[in-house]
Amino acid sequence: MNETNLSQVKEFVLLGLSSSQELQPFFFVIFSLLYTGILLGNFLIILTVTSDSCLHTPMYFLLTNLSFTDICVASFATPKMIADFLVEVKTISFEACLAQIFFIHLFVGGEMVLLVSMAYDRYVAICKPLHYMTIMSHRMCIILVFMSWGVGLIHTTIQMSFTVNLPFCGPNQVDSFFCDLPLVTKLACRDTYFVSLLVLTNSGFLSLISFILLVISYTAILITVRKRSSASMTKARSTLTAHITVVTMFFGPGIFIYVSPFTSHSFDKILAVFYTIITPILNPAIYTLRNKEMKAAMSKLKSQYLKPGQVSAVIRNVIFLESK
Questions:
Q1: Average pLDDT over residues 88-105
Q2: Nearest Cα to 119, choosing from 254, 210, 53, 225?
Q3: Confidence class of residue 209 from pLDDT cuts 50, 70 and 90?
Q4: What digits encode the pLDDT tens for the residues 119-177?
Q5: How far apart, in whole angstroms, are the C-alpha atoms of residue 178 and residue 92?
Q6: Which of 68, 89, 203, 246 lies 20 to 30 Å from 229 when distance is taken between CA atoms?
Q7: DSSP string across 61-122
Q8: Mean pLDDT of 315-321
Q9: Residue 87 CA to chain centroid, in angstroms?
Q10: Does position 265 have pLDDT exceeding 60, yes or no?
């Protein structure tokens, strides 16, 4: 029989984070707040950088793109997950399931390259300060951003080529809150051992190359700063600690899930929450709250839109209208 004729599954059932109906309202509130925080925090970074000319530098240009990518990473599945907390049976169409697989690998693959670009930017700034503006020109920044999206697109296209032609004719329950590639391939009506190996190789290659480049950049920075003053070393350590925290939280869960594609673990869902929700909400805090320039720009933005007396004037107008 032709494999195309075997593809009878029209929708998948997402088992979600928990089967407990009592926990669904709690999860709905928590993840609604987290998702709102992701949107507000990352949009605030984008607005702050674009509105302050002092922040129109390569580092902040890459940071705004990271914030935009984080919004995309959080938005490909989180709104659907939040809505599913209000229903008993969580279904997703076959096409929407494939779309989730496409976008997760597009955004996550792109973010890996973007994190490497940000590490390279810090390497040039610290190790080659006299050539920084020449190397990290506006053209170079544009190239790095387009490269991140290009690599993400190539990565997800390869992953989709392994999945789109698989026959699905039996089980349709995905043990997660979104369609993840290792989980979906297990539901195919044929042996997917070879497909799982190809998925692992593709994801592993991109993750390994990105991680090696990050380690090289951070090592070069530390070696360079060690030769300078203790104040420079302290500042560099603080910056690198923030970057390494993001990298660990972003790469760690994904690597664990894709290194063991043939077995599923109960805490895979928790790991998926980390790189789809927790990391996007922590990035604004890690990259901005410890940054004096961003704090100053945010204060300026606040004073620009919320001038002294403006809030009290609004309150007086509301009271006056209500008294009428």
A1: 91
A2: 210
A3: confident
A4: 899 889 888 888 998 999 999 999 999 999 999 999 999 988 878 888 888 788 888 88
A5: 9
A6: 246
A7: HHHHHHHHHHHHHHHTTHHHHHHHTTSSS-EEEHHHHHHHHHHHHHHHHHHHHHHHHHHHHH
A8: 47
A9: 26
A10: no
Long-range contacts of 157-161 (CB under 8 A, 24+ apart): 158/202, 159/101, 159/105, 159/199, 159/202, 159/203, 160/98, 160/101, 160/102, 160/105
Residue type, 304: Q
pTM of the model: 0.84
What is the rounded distance in angstroms from the CA atom of residue 30 to the CA atom of residue 25?
A: 9
Place of tokens 């004729």: 5
Residue appearing with tokens 């997402």: 14
Res. 306 pLDDT band, cuts 50 70 90: low
d(CA 303, CA 287): 22
Q: DSSP letters along 13-80, please? A: EE--S-S-GGGHHHHHHHHHHHHHHHHHHHHHHHHHHHH-GGG-SHHHHHHHHHHHHHHHHHHTTHHH
Alpha carbon 310 to chain centroid, angstroms: 36
Q: Could you tell me which CATH number the domain at 8-290 has?
A: 1.20.1070.10
SS3 of 188, please? coil
What are 146's two structure tokens? Answer: 């387009």
Every domain of the chain and the residues it spans: 8-290
Tell me how crowded residue 139 is: count the other CB atoms within 10 A of its CB: 8
- How many Cα neighbours within 13 Å face the side chain of 44? 22
- Could you tell me what percent of the chain has a pLDDT over 90? 30
User: How many other CB atoms sit within 10 Å of the CB of residue 36?
Assistant: 11
Bridge partners, residue 92, by sequence: 12
Token pair 């002294």: residue:
308
Which pLDDT score, from 0 to 100, does residue 244 have?
74
pLDDT attached to residue 235: 61
Q: Which of 84, 98, 88 is nearest to 188 (CA)?
A: 98
For 264, other C-beta atoms within 10 Å of its C-beta total 15
For residues 269-274, give the mean pLDDT: 81
> 236 versus 131: which is more confidently predicted?
131
